[in-house]
Amino acid sequence: MKYMHEYRQAVTIRQLADKIAAVTRQHWTIMEVCGGQTHAIVKYGLQQFLPAQIELVHGPGCPVCVTSIDIIDKAIDIAARPNVIFCSFGDMLRVPGSEKDLQSVKALGGDIRIVYSPMDALTLAQHHPDKEVVFLAIGFETTAPANAMAAYQARKKGINNFSLLTSQFLVPPAIEAMCQSPQSRIQGFLAAGHVCAITGYESYPKLAEKYGVPIVVTGFEPLDILQGIFLCIQQLEQGRSEVENQYSRVVRQQGNLPAQQMINEVFECQSQSWRGIGHIEQSGLKLSEAFRPFDAEQKFGLRDKVSSANNKYDTAGCISGDIMQGLKKPCDCIHFGKQCRPESPIGAPMVSSEGACAAYYRYATFNESDTFNKNAAFNKSDTFNKSTTSEKTTTRRDQ
Fold it and tell me: Among the record's GO biological process terms, what is one (predicted)?
């Protein structure tokens, strides 16, 4: 792909891996926050290019994974009602609720439509004035501007049969919550580049200083990620805890000011429940008072409805919370690759391609005993050959 090949050059990657090895003296644990980074790390086998002293753990930056069971149950409630067109991104249809998922509602006749943006849902509302059109607005700061614009345009155009069921998360409070956890073993963070493209990174220096952790704003290509790791390791070895911007070709310190203005006009902060993790103060967004008529929870009388399931835990036996806090890996779960697969997920991280479990399942190999082999999962010699421009072929039990 044009402009991507230079960030996937095998020779450059190996040179940078050698530089990382040269500066690494101690054992360090680094968390990549974003699910897109997790996907790239596993797909390209980047852990295998690093010295044994460096461990990468996977963060909660997959919006499909952290959307609460409460929201999924409310989505199911709304989607099953007559005269409702429920719109969502495709992967949300398979996220388990407390009893079922949206796909099962669709199979029973619910009018659920997969869309590519909230503006598609708004267009449907214009074309179907006799229906209530609801968009499941999930995501982090990256998707918030588009979701805010949909509500803004609905109010401006008087499209009153449109509403948002919001599940919007904020990254900095999640980083702080993990830093505060007594179980945390994270010593440095790779911050999500696309989030910072919207928000900038002016809020990160306080976190880095307060908790003594380097934070490196990092992109998503193999070279980006290894450069982010190199900058982070340099800081750790030198005893520094600062914010650096590896993704300078996209991210500016102040971020995208018009996008921030749109978010601030339509949304306001709220405390949020993160699936598998629990409650995090001021870590989410809800529609502000002026846009409350477009709040699906209010419109359908679900504001005070709470699921019987505990949002701190996923389905029984799922360890998604431990995985997204960097305490465990997908291969530590007894259900991984057995009862829990992408076609029949027990937990949310097996649904989205950005989920750590789905990435491990898709790109990892298994040994003859039918268990995940962490040491043989990736071939260091061929990772950047054919897989540089296309998905690499993997050995899988079901192939």
Answer: protein maturation
Q: What is the tens place of the pLDDT at every residue in 187-204?
A: 999 999 999 999 999 999
CA dist list (Å): 211 to 30, 220, 230, 322? 14, 25, 20, 21
Query: Angle CA(261)–CA(70)–CA(149) in degrees, nearest 5?
Result: 20
| Cα three-residue angle 351-105-60, rounded to 5 degrees | 25
Domain 65-170+255-299, CATH 2.60.40.10 — does that match?
Answer: no
Would you say residue 396 has pLDDT above 60?
A: no
Residue with tokens 């036996």: 317
Backbone angle region of 120, left / alpha / beta, with phi > 0 → left and psi within -120 to 50 → alpha: alpha
- pLDDT (mean) for 89-93: 94
Closest CA to 309 of 59, 65, 72: 72
The CA-based diameter of the chain, rounded to the nearest angstrom, is 66
Q: Give me 92's structure tokens.
A: 């949300």
192, 198 contact by CB (below 8 A):
no
Residues with Cβ within 8 Å of 344's Cβ and at least 6 positions away in sequence, in order, are none
| pTM score, whole prediction | 0.88
Strand, helix or coil for residue 162 = strand
Distance of CA 98 to CAs 18, 71, 76, 205, 298, Å? 47, 10, 10, 39, 21
CA distance 226 to 219: 10
The CA distance from 15 to 18, in Å, is 5
